[in-house]
Amino acid sequence: MENAAGKEILASFGWDNATLNTITSGLINHTWKLHTDSGDYILQRINTTVFKRPDLIDENLNRIASWLKVHAPGYLFTAPVKNKEGLSLIQVEGAAYRAFEFQQHTHTIAVVADAKEAFEAAKQFALFTQQLEEFPADQLHITLPDFHNLALRFNQFETALRNNNEERFVNAAATAHTLYQMKAIVSRYNQYIAHPDARKRVMHHDTKISNVLFNDAGRGVCVIDLDTVMPGYLFSDPGDMFRTYLPPVSEEETDLDRIHIRKPVLEAIEAGYLDTLKHQLSSFESANFYLSGEILIYMQALRFLTDYLENDRYYGEKYPDQNLVRAKNQLRLLELYRETIR
Question: Is this structure's pTM higher than 0.70?
């Protein structure tokens, strides 16, 4: 952190004798752990390239925090702390910062090791939505427009097929053909969001396991990294869990033979999520629970391949054809997932 900016931020909170340690596990925001005379905190500089309106995120978190304080005071919600002026979003030298209380005796997990971890994480994301069942979701800002809009992602894919350079089209032809042949998933997505029993709720939208805090006993404590919290449909959160929890390897795996579906993990997601939310869900939402995985895995495959065809404008690449490899990885996962849930 820049020295002058750091001093200004610390002074605004009245934190004396602070020491900072960089946390490198986050992918989007710059994060530090602070030890001060008044306690330990997490300080973040928000990535405004990704989140162009940090003020909207701040408003969302404070609205939710105020509502939960009245309606669910026992629920642990990691709201940003306010500085001496009562502000929870601090603008310094054109950058946006916020701080959270550090939750003692907790840790995060990078990769799902077993069904128990998957169950605990799924339960925490379900509890988050459950606690906000009566919260007016339409009062929240959309922090990432069209984030899980599969119809838009497919349209972008079609445009990329028409406009890409010839060499990349040749390399991607087989993968593109297979993904195009799966376009019925888009129709099912459109039918889902149009269904009267598919209501909009407060959803997290980024349910990788590193966004859950665990205690020393391995139990889930709460969800974190709340920048993507906004109104959404039920498929978003379990769908992202199916995509990221089920295989023993990540979307970066180049050996497709190493990708497989861990059935106990799939069952744990269902148990942790559905059992927690079952009384709030419509029969339509419950019946289409596994469609969520198809939507999210398919969407990510399309996004990777679209970016490859557009010369890696969004995700970039660390080696040649990385986004094509990622697309093939997600396509293989989708094929195995569909076989498993049939």
Answer: yes
d(CA 175, CA 165): 16
Contact 140, 202 (CB under 8 A): yes
CATH number of the structural domain spanning residue 158: 3.90.1200.10
137 touches 67 (CB < 8 A): no
Instruction: Give the count of alpha carbons within 13 A of 19, CB side only.
Output: 2
Stretches in the chain below the pLDDT threshold 70: 1-4, 24-28
Structure tokens at 209: 């396991």
pLDDT at position 22, please? 80
Nearest of 174, 173, 197, 177 to residue 288 by alpha carbon: 197
Q: What is the span of the domain harbouring residue 82?
A: 3-102
In the sheet with 90-92, reading across from the earlier edge strand, the strands are 19-23, 30-36, 39-45, 95-101, 90-92
Q: What is the pLDDT of residues 245-272, one digit of tens each?
A: 999 999 999 999 999 999 999 999 999 9
* In the chain, % of residues over pLDDT 90: 82
H or E element at residue 100: strand 95-101
Same domain, 83 and 128: no
**237 plus 200 within the same structural domain:** yes
